[in-house]
Amino acid sequence: NPSPLAKGFNLFDYAWDNVMEGKVLEKNDNAVLVSDPVVLDGVMSIEIQPNTQHPYPNLYREGYIDTTRFQIMKIRMRISGAAQSTLTTRALLRHSGWSGDDILFEADADGAWHEYAIDLTRSSAWEQWTGTGRIGLQFPHQDSNTITVAVDHIRLESREGFLQLSLLKDEGNGFNLSYPSQVGRTYSLYHRESLTTGDWNLISSGNA
Length: 208
Hints:
This protein is mainly β and 208 residues long. It has helices at residues 14-17, 192-197, and strands at residues 10-13, 23-25, 38-40, 43-48, 58-62, 72-80, 86-96, 99-100, 103-108, 113-119, 134-138, 147-157, 166-169, 175-178, 186-190, 202-207. The strands form four sheets. Strands 1, 3, 4, 6, 10 and 12 form a six-stranded antiparallel sheet that branches. The longest helix has 6 residues, at 192-197. It is globular. The chain starts with 9 loop residues before the first strand and ends with a strand. Mean pLDDT is 77; it is low at 1-8, 162-166, 178-184 and 192-200.
């Protein structure tokens, strides 16, 4: 079965809908230290004050994922206001409920946008994924400064990559399909609405 979570291979894509997607967990005293998420101009931003407690705030979605289809998580994120140049961050990978094996990485905290590619196969949770799994991002935190974390998108990709297709309006009522010169590749075209609901209704398929 395909993954019902992947919206055009995006777990979170704030530029597309410009609305809040996913859930933000803020338990215990963290509720007064973490702002409500704001989505503006295709970016989700959240403000995190010092001294947050475990469990640390995170952004996640819950459900089945076809782990044979995806191996890489790409996170585009910006961290502002930090005292350090980098902050420890986690790719949240919980295969059943809150049981799992997150992947830690160092995120640049220089106020600029950075994209991080995380190899999900490094986590033991990836091979154990169930319908109650939770996937996303545990926000960075620190004890000194209030930081602002902005997320553009969190995307799942195949290690082998995808054939990128473009739809161009033709002179009639249809579209022309264009693609890079990568012969021997198979493509499938789906309605985005069906990707959102997990139906994955096929429009057409073929070879490049």
